[in-house]
Amino acid sequence: MKFLGFTFIIISAISFGLMPIFATLCYKSGLNIKTILLFRFLIAAILINIYIILKGYSYPRGKLLIMLFFMGAVLYSAQAFLYFSAVGLIGSSLTSILLYLYPSIVLFLSVILLKTKVYKQDILALIFTTIGAILVVGIRFENINLLGIIFGISAALVYSVYIVVGTKAMQGTTPIVGTGVILFGASSIYVIYGLSTKITIPNTFEQWGWIFAITVISTLVAIITFFAGLKLIGPVKASMISTFELVVTLICAYFLLGEKIEFIQIAGGVFILISALILAKEKVKS
Fold first, then answer.
1. Of 168, 176, 173, 165, nearest in space to 71 by CA
2. Tens-place pLDDT, residues 256-286
3. Exposure string (b/e) for 158-191, b if CB count within 10 Å is 16 or more?
4. Model's pTM, two decimal places?
5. Under DSSP, is residue 260 helix (H, G, I), strand (E, B) or coil?
């Protein structure tokens, strides 16, 4: 069962790793980030909640319902805002490095709040993960901005809280139903934001095609499989394995977008793969 959890997180990482590729293709088709985020969450929320209703699944009630809605409306939305604000101020490379501090933060929060046991393999895998993430995204410090640094670190903190809260929430529901409530919360915020600003409606088959690719693959599949894996292997290992999405993005950018890969990025990918193998070996033994 735990190896199945590892597999779920790998599928999630692949799905999330494709999102920057789909987003780039969205930009090239004429869409902007506000439009992408609005329709991504709105369509995903509609599709999954229709599925939940048709299957007759029960929604959680009381505190759990509020917790899941909070995860989408506050944590997920805030993380997206902080991340894109940081990118605008300090660039994507430094922002990514700051964001991928989250496995370390998740480990700390899990030990303190969830009393999660941490083993030597976890620490070793975390070291390889951190080094790998830094090498893959590259270290570029041309645009140092204190507010941008604060936004980047805050994005990592918020995402870490999201994962830890999600660990607790998933104990009382299924990944599909939990994702349905979370996406409803996130879409509510983006609909309100969209109505208060100028949003461009996709008007070509190409634009709608990339929107649906982000919605189905990099939102529904990515989130559901992440929570399914999180439920089986816990937040510490799930967050570390998730960094595999950087490798996926790197490879897909090379083959699909024609971007160059530097040797240092390949080395970073190897570090991340070693981290995944360390955790996979541990899961097989368990």
1. 165
2. 888 888 888 899 999 998 998 888 766 545 4
3. bbbbbbbbbbebbebbbbbbbbbbbbbbbbbbbe
4. 0.89
5. coil
